[in-house]
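Suppose a classmate hands you a notebook page containing two proteins, each written out with its sequence and a corresponding row of structure tokens. How would you begin to make sense of it? This section walks through that situation. The first entry is reproduced here exactly as it would appear on such a page.
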Amino acid sequence: MPIMKLLNNLPKIDQAVRQFSLKNAIYYEMGDLLIFSGFAGLDLETGKLSEGNFETHANDAIDCYQYILESAGLSLDHVISVRCYLKEPVTYYPMWNEVFKARFTAPYPCRTTVGANLVVGEIELEFIAAKTTRASAELITSK
């Protein structure tokens, strides 16, 4: 039976989420997969919600994950799935698409983008990562 691990303690993340009284895990590790809680655009230096335009919010949300991934010895190249929730999907989708393309390289992660009535922020992201990079995935072609 695989061992499940829980990470629930990273100083910069703890500082940021404490203000929202959240009581959830940062991520669970199960075998080769890391399944993350969602994050809005948070400024990791101040622990507050991002200020500025949508791109700042989106990049700060990705920066949260990058910090967590690096603490686990991984990088954005290990992200295999991105779920994106946008407060204003029609307005923000083109900007989100540009941020996504700038922050991830091919082969790109699977992705889903939907509109949502968010509790805080303009964007919330949810990642799944693997201990193997996307670039090392075996390419399977249909016959």
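The notebook's second entry, a different protein, reads as follows.
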Amino acid sequence: MSLNDSILKFNPKKRPKSPEDSFFNQGDEEFSRIWNTKYFCIENEEPLENDEKNDYIKCNLLPSCLSLKFLTIEDYEAHYSLTHKYYCSICNVTLMTERLLNIHLQEVHDSFFEILSSRKNMYQCLIQDCEEKFKDSKERKQHLIEKHNFSKQTNVNGLIKKRIKKYKD
């Protein structure tokens, strides 16, 4: 079987925008902020040398964080920002942005949302500066593909409904 007869064919397409285009600046900055956020965390059940003498900051917000200790406030703040900042206390989901958390709360936990969405456009675009609303999630996905260059394979509903982190109690 030759490469041309392959079932999975790759059709390269020219990007509508170059990687240096200002369109990508906000996403690049957010990715860089998250990717470069490193914090020093001690996760150890055994007592450390001189443990009782050291002033560690402990996280007790979730059971999965009880064994974490941080040496500085900056380390704790980085942990908080990545783990607890956009946290849904109803279903224990952490989302990437405040906007995604608000959309998640509406679409997943607001019983009135389903009734309203049958009468008017309620599904918000997931992009921060876009105020478009749609009648359903399929229409929103099409908008994200056409206007914001999302991939057709992107699980758009997963961005607001799927767990990034699941905490076990």
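A careful reader of the second entry would note: The chain has two domains: 34-83, 88-161.
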